[in-house]
Amino acid sequence: SKNALLSGKRIMITAGPTREAIDPVRYISNHSSGKMGYAIAKAAVELGAKVTLVSGPVNILPPENVEVESVVSAQQMYDAVMSDIGSHDIFIACAAVADYRVDNASNHKMKKNKDDGLTLSFIQNPDILKSVAALDTAPFTVGFAAETQDMIEYAKSKLIRKKLNMIAANDVSKPGLGFNSDKNALIVITPEKEYELAQASKDSLAVNLLRLVEREYQETQK
Ligand code: PMT
């Protein structure tokens, strides 16, 4: 409805893992299921937003009324985000993007060497979140920080270093929370404030996260 909290707002969300090819049949990835990002997309639609979901490969269905752009690698996710971000008011980076890709990915299936080990070399992928936040006409930019130690400290340094409006710190060392589970817990940090979103379903956390995003977004529009 026109009175919904995010009515008329255009939100882009990244979700899921990326896959970085080693050769045509093998890849490096991570445990992201896409559940958190898809829950945010669903909640954003329910709150009245127009949603673009840029998704890595996942095994869940996208929510209804969301424009989905499917990608595989970090470079593809970067290209999809950067070509379309201009028309969005808010960007939420929930994807678990590979920081590195294999430098010398093979065009053919690699063969096993009888006695030798295998050494791969890596180069850095572009940082999607940092690139969006650095745009001249950057949207309100929200990052996630998946950490296994010193969570708040690392999240705050990401907030400042990447010039974000907000970061959701996600302790991924606790069993049953974070990667691939149905529940999560977040500490949401802005340059001035800190909010705790206690353990809950990803669906309900998504709504509460978006309420904070909307409140802080309005502050930047004053
Ligand atoms: O998908 P689920 O199974 O539901 O799990 C949810 C989740 C744990 C993946 C999610 O809640 C989460 O924490 N996502 C961020 C995971 C991550 O890769 O965090 P990071 O600290 O490595 O990255 C920091 C931020 O930079 C993230 O917003 C990430 O999307 C972004 N990034 C990172 C690297 C890169 N090249 N480009 C990016 O945009």
From TrEMBL:
Reaction equations catalysed: N-[(R)-4-phosphopantothenoyl]-L-cysteine + H(+) = (R)-4'-phosphopantetheine + CO2; (R)-4'-phosphopantothenate + L-cysteine + CTP = N-[(R)-4-phosphopantothenoyl]-L-cysteine + CMP + diphosphate + H(+)
Required cofactor names: FMN; Mg(2+)
Protein's GO biological process: coenzyme A biosynthetic process; pantothenate catabolic process
Keyword Disulfide bond belongs to the record: no
Entry keyword Secreted: no
GO cellular component terms given for this protein: phosphopantothenoylcysteine decarboxylase complex
Single annotated GO MF: FMN binding
Domain DNA/pantothenate metabolism flavoprotein C-terminal: start-end pairs: 6-214
Region described as Phosphopantothenate--cysteine ligase: spans on this chain: 11-222
Chain sites annotated for binding CTP: 99, 109, 126-129, 144, 158, 162
Pathway the protein acts in: Cofactor biosynthesis; coenzyme A biosynthesis; CoA from (R)-pantothenate: step 3/5; Cofactor biosynthesis; coenzyme A biosynthesis; CoA from (R)-pantothenate: step 2/5
EC number: 4.1.1.36, 6.3.2.5
Cofactor binding annotation: Binds 1 FMN per subunit.
Keywords: Decarboxylase, Flavoprotein, FMN, Ligase, Lyase, Magnesium, Metal-binding, Multifunctional enzyme
Entry similarity comment: In the N-terminal section; belongs to the HFCD (homo-oligomeric flavin containing Cys decarboxylase) superfamily. In the C-terminal section; belongs to the PPC synthetase family.
The protein, known as: Coenzyme A biosynthesis bifunctional protein CoaBC
Species name: Agaribacter marinus
Name of encoding gene: coaBC
